[in-house]
Amino acid sequence: MATKKSYVKKITTKDCGLNIEICEGILEKTGKETPVLRVWGNVKSSSGKDSQYGPYQVFGGEFAAINLSDGREARSDKMILPQVAEMLVSQALAAAQKSDPKATMPFGIDITISPNPSTKGGTKFKFGVIALKGSDQKDALDLLGEELGNLPLLPQKK
């Protein structure tokens, strides 16, 4: 359970207490993919921004996050996610708002870190995401997957 709630300007890994040194320290202990931040809420909007690191999305809505290494909980009406999680939430929001532009999308994810074999010029870890709760809306890939799901698999080598 969360030990302390705080209200922050925006939910980000950094604003939730997960800087590079802390993430690398967690990986030194575990050596494998590890959930580090649980994020949930209701997404209402998304807007694109640019920074020196490239484009990113700022989500608007009601959000909460728990740092899984120390139990601190943060809340905000804005959220910026690592790119891999951003794509998942953006696509689900777009699918939810396709038929109703004012629709909100409840979600829950765990942000994970895992060893990054390509540390050249970067960090020793990379972010991942595990969907805990997502949109009930189906996107084009979901529909195609259902269509293809009954096709036979390619023969396997023995």
Could you please describe the fold and organization of this structure?
The chain is an alpha+beta fold. It contains 3 helices and 6 strands. It has a 6-stranded mixed sheet. β2 and β3 form a beta hairpin.
Q: What is the topology?
A:
Layout (H helix, E strand, L loop, with lengths): L3 E4 L12 H11 L3 E18 L2 E14 L4 E8 L3 H14 L8 E11 L9 E9 L6 H9 L10
Parallel strand pairs: 1-4
Antiparallel strand pairs: 2-3, 2-5, 3-4, 5-6
Entry keywords:
158 residues, 6-stranded mixed sheet, globular, 3 helices, single chain
Overall pLDDT metric: 84
SS element count, helices: 3
Shape: globular
**Terminal CA distance:** 48 Å
Estimate what percentage of residues fall within beta strands: 35-45%
Q: How many individual β-strands?
A: 6
> What structural class do you assign from the helix and strand content?
alpha+beta
Spatial strand arrangement across the major sheet? 1-4-3-2-5-6
Q: Classify the oligomer.
A: single chain
Describe the largest sheet.
6 strands, mixed
- Radius of gyration from CA coordinates: 18 Å
Order of helices and strands: EHEEEHEEH
Q: How many separate domains? A: 1
The helix content, as a percent range, equals 10-25%
